[in-house]
Amino acid sequence: MQKKSLYQSLLILILIAYSCSKKPVSDFNISEQSTFALTGNKVYLPKLIMPYKIERKDSFLIVIESSRLPENKPLIHIINKKDLSYHSGKGVMGIGPNEITDAHLFDPGFSDSTFWVNSTISKRMAEFSLYDSSKLSISEFKQPQNMYSAINMQLITDSSYLCVMAADPNKLVAFNRNGERLGGYGKWETLESRSIESDGSQINNYIISEVNSGWFKRSSFGNLYVKAGIHRDRLEIFDFETKRFITLDGPRMQLPDFDIVGSGVNTAVIIADNHAYGHRDIAFSEDFIYDLYGGYSEQDYLSEGILAKTIYVIEKRGSVRYKLDLDISIRCLTVDQALGKIYGITTDEDPGIAVFDMPQELLDLLAE
Q1: 16 in a domain, yes or no?
Q2: Is the pLDDT of residue 261 over 50?
Q3: Which domain holds residue 302?
Q4: Which H helix or E strand runs over 299?
Q5: Which of 42, 68, 246, 306 has the fewest CB atoms nearer than 10 Å to its CB?
């Protein structure tokens, strides 16, 4: 009896270990029955000059401009989601107190009345009010010296941050407000079928992270973070509560073509011009991840104005469930599943906000 009990316990431990390390099958080949065509309506707002990102916070859309915007214009626009009327502008461009140089990443924060942006050039995070009339941020966090190599940041709590680093053995690193390292999560794998010769592990980590670079987003529905590869077709879903990654590779399985130029601190990774972009942006609902996928190169964009016309709807555990085909090219997206709407920034010469109504059949399936 003791041997049988020991065998059963060992078998259970093996099954648990296997389930914890198993990578989900990445199947982006969606059937016709699970594919939906969405028709969009473009809304032009004159105050949007070089719109680059679109996010959502409560009853508002947050539109972020490119950092190439004229300095006297607000970097951030708050728009009423219901009727797309203009609410206010935020973000004074500069390096002074409560100014920002760019608004590279959005974080919803933990307050109903504010949101945060990660200003990567000036190495700070800035908190803005949804309701006051000032264009300046109401508070800011300047990265300590120990965090200077953090290139993308999202909040964990009001006083801790989860970061993508420029060159680190870990894929994600957590810090507190004093710049003290709280932990590192996920180790970089070597690039299959590609030999890298360099002058140290730090440079190797930099090269691998550059090939795997992309968007880094936090869900406002729990402790879920997603890194979406812009060059390599890879999604990494990280649950901070369990400290586990789920990795999805696809639709393309091969690495992008790239060259390594320079040496030492001057090393750079050059991706081929004709390489099509992969995952362009991520949005969240309570139970799903909405993955905007490209498949078009920079050359396609310059000649035809197309960046992305496909959205994959993915369960939080990594199962790709549905595919949405858009009739308007967009560069980014946000989703309000309760309203049944998807919003994006168009990629034409005079960009505006594209609004897509989700079909009731799809909404019913998502609610099951």
Answers
A1: no
A2: yes
A3: 36-366
A4: helix 298-304
A5: 68
